[in-house]
Structure formats: C-alpha cells, structure tokens
Amino acid sequence: MRLMAKDIPFFDLSLVRILLFAIPVGLIIGVIVDLIPQKIVARVIGGIIVVASFILYGIEFCCMDFYGTYFGFGYMAGMTGQVVDGFKGTILQVAGARIPQILVLFIPVVLFFVFIRIIIPLEKAGKRFWIISLVSVLVLWIAGSLLSLKGPDNNYATYDFEPNMAIQRYGLVDSLILEARYGVFGKPEMPLPEINPDEPLFTTFEPSMFTEATTVTTLPDTGDTDPAESSEEPTATPTPYPFNITDIDFEALYNETDNNTIKGMHLYFGNNMPTQQNEYTGMFEGKNLILITAEAFCPYAIDKDYTPTLYKLANEGFVFTDFYQPNWHLSTTGGEYAVMTGQIPQWIGSSNSFYASRNDYMPYGFGYVFGDMGYSTPAWHNGAYTFYDRDKTHPNLGYDFSAINHGLEVESLAWPASDYEMFEATVDSYIDDYVNNGTKFHAYYMTVSGHCNYSWAANAMSKRNKESAIEAFPDSSQTIQAYMACNKELDKGLEYLLDKLEKAGIADDTVIVMCADHYPYGMANGGTDYYDELSGMESSEQDIIRYKNTLVLWCGSIEEPIVVDTPCSSIDIIPTLMNLFGIEYDSRLFPGRDIFAPVYDVSSVNSSMPLVILPMNAGNSWKTELGEYDCKTKEFTPKPGVSVPDDYVDNVNQLVKDKWKYSGYIIQYDYFKYVFEQED
Description:
- This protein is of the alpha/beta class.
- It has 24 helices and 20 strands.
- α16 (390-393) links the parallel β8 and β9 (400-404).
- It is globular, with a radius of gyration of 27 Å.
C-alpha cells in the first residue's frame, strides 16, 4: 500500500517504524493461531484474517488514491451504510479504475492459500516458537515505540494523532491500535510551549501600531450640522482603523485552567495578530445573504455563452483573481466545513472535523449569527438528509436544515438531483417573507448537480442537458461535455434565483456568495486526467494551480466590478463576510482572514497575513504575497522582483503548522465553550 501511494516516499524513517510495528503483530497472530488445537479451524481463522486485511488495505488504498487521504476505521465504519446506499456507482468506478493495484494487494491472500499447509502446519510449532516470537515482539515493539514517541513526528503518535498522518508515518496496524486506545482513554495533553518569565504572556494590540498602513480621514468637529457647510478643510490627521477583535481576556482564561492543551490554546489565540477593519467594513450591513457551496465547481464551468448566469455572478461583483479551494482530503464535507465555519477541515481523531463539531458550541455559525439579528436562516441540500450527518452538523450552526424528502420536495428523484428544482422549490418562501413581512434572510444551499460521474449514462443532470452541451462543446471529450452539462443545471438554478430577486426588486438588498466544495476530482481519476483537458493546462493533484478556483461575491448594488488580487482561499470567506456585514467578531480565532484587511508588511510573517494553505500528500504547500512553496520539492518560488527574508520559508511553514493544529483543537476541545464561558 505504501509503495503505491502517490507522492509519499517509500524509503524513509517511516518505513522502519512501519516494519517495527507490523512484524510484531504478525508474530502475535502467528502465536494465537498456533495455540488453536484444531488446525482446520486455525486455517479458517487465518484465512479470515488475511482476507479481512486485504479488504481493509484495499479500501484504504482506494481512499488515498481517490480522495487523497487515509480514513480512520471508526469513520469508515460509520460512513459505510451511507456510501453504499448513495454512491454504488462511484464505488464501482473507483475500484474498477484500480484493478491492477488491488490485484497487487491480493497477492498475500493468494500466497496464504497456496502455502497454507506450510504457514499453518498440522503440528504445533511449540513453546520455543512462542517464546522467540514473544521476545521478538517485545524488543521490536519497544524499539518502534521509542522511535515514534521520541523521534521526529512524535506528535502524530500522541497529542496530534489522526489516522491519515499516523498511517503514513507508523503504518495501518499501529494506527488502528492508537485509534482504539485514544478512542477509549483520550489523547495526551499537548506540552506547553517554553515561556520567557521576563516577557509578558500576552501581546497588547493597539490600532496605532499600524497607523501608517491604513488610515481613515476625519472631518473637523466644528459644531456644524452639515459638514458641507463647514469653512474648515478635512484634517489630514490619520486615524487607524480599529481591529476586528472582542474583549476576550485570554490571560484570565489562561490562569483559570490546569489543562496544558487549553493553556497553550489561550496563549496561541491571545497572541495572534488580529486584522483591522477597512474601507469595506459594513458595506453589506443589513442586507440579505445567500451562501452556496457548489458541488465540484471550478472556474472552467463558467462560460459566457453556455453558463451566462455563472459568468454574470463571477464577473460583475467582486472578482477574485487568486482564489483557491484546496483539496482538504475530506471530499465534500471538508470543503463545505471550510466555507461554513472558516476553520481548517481535518481529521479529529477518527472523525472529520464537521462531524466532530456536531455537539460543540459554534457561536460563529452563520445560522446563529444572522438568526440573532432577526434573519430567517433556512438551509437546503438536494441530497440525502443524513448524509455526512448534515442533520446534526447544520442545525448546530443555527440553520433550519432541509433535504430531499425531509422538508425539501423536488419533481424528480434522479441522481444527481436538480439544482434548478431545488431553487425553484425554495426561493419563493424567503423572498415572499421578506417582501411581505420585512423578515431578512440568510439562506444556505449545498448543491449536488455537479457530482461525478461525468457521462451520459451515469449522471442524470448531464443527460438532461446533453444536447446543449454537445452543441456548445463539439470538440470536447464526453467527460468534459457531461461535466459542463450538469453545471448547466446549476446555472439554470441561479438564473431562476436572480430572476426572482430582480422581479421582487430586492437584488440590490441581497448578497450572493458561492464557492466550490472541491474541484471536480472525479474527472482526474482513472487512466486519463480530463481536468487537464478542461483547464487547458498540464497539472497534477500535487500542483498548486490545480486548486485555483472562483469565489462568487455579488450584490445587485455593486455598480462596477471590483478586482481583488490578494491570495485567498475558502477559509477566508467567513471572516470576510463578517467584516462586510459589519458583524462583531474576533479575528484572532480564525485561521483565515478578512480578504480586504490591510497587509501591514508583506515580508513579515504573522497570523493575519494573506496565506493560502494547500494540503498535499507530501505535506502542506502554500502561497503568500511573496510567492509559492512546494512541499514535495521543498522549494520556494518567489514572485519576480521581490526580496524574501532568509527565515521567511521556515517561519511560514511554522505558521501553517500552527494554524492547522490549533484550528483542529478548536473542535477537538470545544474551545469556544471556554472562550465564551458556556456552561456544559
């Protein structure tokens, strides 16, 4: 499995650790089987173990090769029913495209049954075998444990354990053992960072620190009621924008707890550099908001003639030229979590971060944020109500969540379902309530029409728009035509939405935001990478450019397009909208940032700098104002003409590591409960 994993080196220290754990487990199984007196029974049990291992390794290989991540056993067990029920066709496609690799994994099964009489002979091996095996187990296990707990990457075996990272570093066998242990007894506490007793624990941030970076010109106070009638000129005295920050007393919180992990979190968040407000602060205050996570959306689904509404939304509001939706290695639920929470999607133990958050206190969930301001907060998904446990996660963000046959009724139950039919069935409810009763709305949608597979036979929305796609793209492959055809259904849904807003006269009062959950990786698996054809360039899933995407941020009141060239990604959406809607929030608690926040010094590494984190199989690549870092080659490519400090790459790598870790800790330890003093 390791040999066939994409972009994970085979010969390194991890291989040694894997062998030190795998061999003892094999010896233990050998001893147990040898102790069984009935050898026919022993052979049956041995066969079951080998076949079960093949199935587990085969599933893990397919998960890594298709999704880019290894799954925890607990997560796989919980999702099995949902996946089998909803994605039978996709499972067959994923497995069918990997038959050669699966056959390689099947070799141990063949060898076992060919040599079963030698592997499990009729006579017992005896006490000498048992003693030698158990002594070997003890020696190898101690060596592996010391190398894991004291060597590099030891955090992934202890307080930062999660299956994907652990499997890569310690192997599947040890990862399963760690997952079971921590599932029962919990993970160890994180060690506190070194503290200098001669320095204050927490930094005091004052807006005047950045007066030269951003200023607000103030009018003189003359007592005149109309500034236009004043005889004095506006002052040139700069007034710094205030921080997007709240009055959290991190030092008091630090002193109140004995848990080292929580103490470390208070230190980290309390010393994060906050972002300042800016010229766009409150631009959309009081307006309605429609937030959409679009299934497998990408920039190349936008065509001026074929998907004109997508083109309009992407080019007539804010135009983001350097936006990314990374591959968070958690498929749709990861991308949706980033869009909806502003936190980094990752594994929390054996659960994905969205599922792990279902019982946490989530005060920045937009259902709560806008609900507290008197907005209606419906959420819809034209898929199964319980898939990815949205029936638990979305209400925990404050939404009134509905899905197919559970509050959302559509005309057809084809797969994938129609985005147009979803908008058609829902838009009137909140528009009429706003027009007739003055109830503002924040509506959330998770679409599904763009879901793979991309063919006329396997995708109902592709088939529905087949003729128009073939006519519009006659020289493209069927995969590309089918992809564009299913996104036509999204375009028709958005056209219906805009038409309803304009007819009601409230387009100027409504903000539409849309982002992909992930790029359409379904067309990049198998023998041909059709995404290269779609994009018109050669790239792989380890290249940063593969994850460049489009963020729609549109409002009918925007008269001219506003071009934004700041590097940004999906975790920046929530803090950006907070600022645009004039909502009080603490920017130190988010790994992303308000995209419009001032940049104090592009060469300075701090938590509020523009930063795009791009997880790959080999680690985390990233992009900043100064250039791009490739985790596979470990090379930084600066922009032409810029000067990069010597320690810049090391400092950004540490910043990325910290953002990733502490964003996960927010969910793992229900951190907002501590910060906002919520009772259990």
